[in-house]
Amino acid sequence: MREMAKGSNVGLAALGDETGSVIVSLRWSSAAGDGDADVSVLLLDGDGKVRGDSDFFFYNNPAAADGSVQLLGKTPTDSGSEDRISLDLTAVPQDVERIVVAASRYGGSCFGELDDLRVTLADRSGEALLGFSITDAGVESAFIFSELYRRGEEWKFRAIGQGYETGLAGLATDFGIDIDDESDDDAVEVPAVEQVPKSDEPRPPAAFPTEVASKVQSTGVEPTTKRVPGPRTAKKKVTLPKVAKKSLAENDSWRPARLLPAPSLKSDKERELRATSVLLSVMAEVPELGRRLTAAFGAPAGRMQTFTEVTLPHGDTPKRPDGVIRVERAGKLWTALVETKTNGNPLKPDQVQNYMDIAARRGYEAVITLSNDVALEGSPLVDVRTDGRRKHKVALWHLSWAEVAHQAQMLIRHEGVGNAAHAWLLQELLHYLQHENSGCHGFQNMGPAWVPVRNGIDSETLCQGDQRAVEVVESWERLIRQVCLRLGGELGQKALPVQRAKRGTDPHSRRTVLADRLCDEGRLTAELRIDGTPGILAITADLRTARLRTSIEIQAPDGSYPLTSAKRLIRLLAEAPADLHVETLVEGGNGPRGTLERLRPEPADMLPKGGTQMTGFRLSLFKGMGATRGSAESGFIRSVDESVDRFYASVVAQLISFERRPGSRAQPMEPAAVG
DSSP state, 302? Predict the structure, then answer.
């Protein structure tokens, strides 16, 4: 990968033959784990201005209709998270001369508080070509990381690293975007979708526990409207209504007819065939889903066709991949082979290797594996050989069923699709994926090392360096990433695991350190950052006591009296469960603690003794941990899901609801400083 200096430029044609479609990635890290920024892209004409507000792309306007720009969202990395942007340079209108890639912070934060600011550019096969690190960030709240610009018929990349103390408003104004100054912090309410008329019968979001759904809805925050810096957008899209039409069935035992039935599936082979056909057909018919699932793999925006059970020659024995995706744009064809597994079945390395070889010989761009497993950075699900003598490169990508469900949920519940028929198709797809007989349930098994590791911790015979502990740490990371996908889809918010490691840390080394800590302490820990949540949600699985702890830290408002802060917290938690554990945080030690039931009548019991400075509070819920490695009723995975759901619904949603309740005069609690 070529390292760029600030202000330098390079032509993309000199970097390779696969640069008509590129992926630009922006990343940063934060020692506290709570650093974040919003990515934006601007298309500029020859005068250096946008042609209109539709040339400004951000999280509430994430894609261009012609497919030239698509914000792919955040993905976890070993050092934090990475925002990826797909740019199809062959689809960029001729009157667009420059593509500016920027990011902005909010709430008074600046980029100097983040570490390892970096932008990379990769070709459509995923191979990183260029990298540029920003090392001089300070008080700026917006940054232009880089730009792509035309020189004749060629596209070039320039490393910029220019900051704005005036934030996104200052940056956008420079490029001809009108900012609405009527609301705070240059923010305007941007309707993302046009709601379908609703009936009077309430219904929680699909596949989310009723308790969680009711609590989330009680916040009063519409998931289809966000406050966003920048211009208004007039995009009108369709989401499914929050409530269902009243049923005409004679009784509750009648089941509605489904487009994609699942109960009759008997064998794994039948499940794989059905799941592949269902998904690929919906991808071809619903452009928003097809584009979203393939843009990250370097596919252009264009006419998509999908096929199943295609026979392809391979030596003496023809091979039959589960599916083929073909996308055509401007006479050019992008093609990928698809290999599917369901019901927790693992991918077979020799099978994937065969498809990689076939793809290389036939000029296909990618092989996409699809299974219940979740891919981790530095821990490939299958190892394949690449023949370096071949000029044509084939990219190997992985997609989990949990990610497919997440993207479908985001489209039909929060971001919207082109018409009501597409929304209905996505709803049928989601219902199929969530059916207990489909086999498409995401990560559901902690692996064969889980029980031996738990037994070793219980008997104190598990030693540092045991590879089985590393396997458990990897399974734990996969589970946490799936929890983030599920929560993000239901809430319509970005949810990511927090990684406290410097960029460049070897993933295997990091997991080995965590595995040794597991052997010593007997605990697995994780942290989640969810947009709109007052703090970082922490999860601890104590294998010695078989208990799960979910918690969040919030700090007392500056300048308030300790008793006032304690009483305010009690009001915030008016509807929280009585067994909520409340601990007062103090400087240099532990403060008073107790259950909410005991503290409600006597908030003064939360105050530290001897004049010790109070810094905030830690709120925790405890739950018994499932014993088995899977997601059955008594399984560990299900117990983690239930623990996170209950904590978010009964504690976090209460904090958010109170802060946004009309007429509330209470000063909101602040996220705790972590680090």
Answer: S
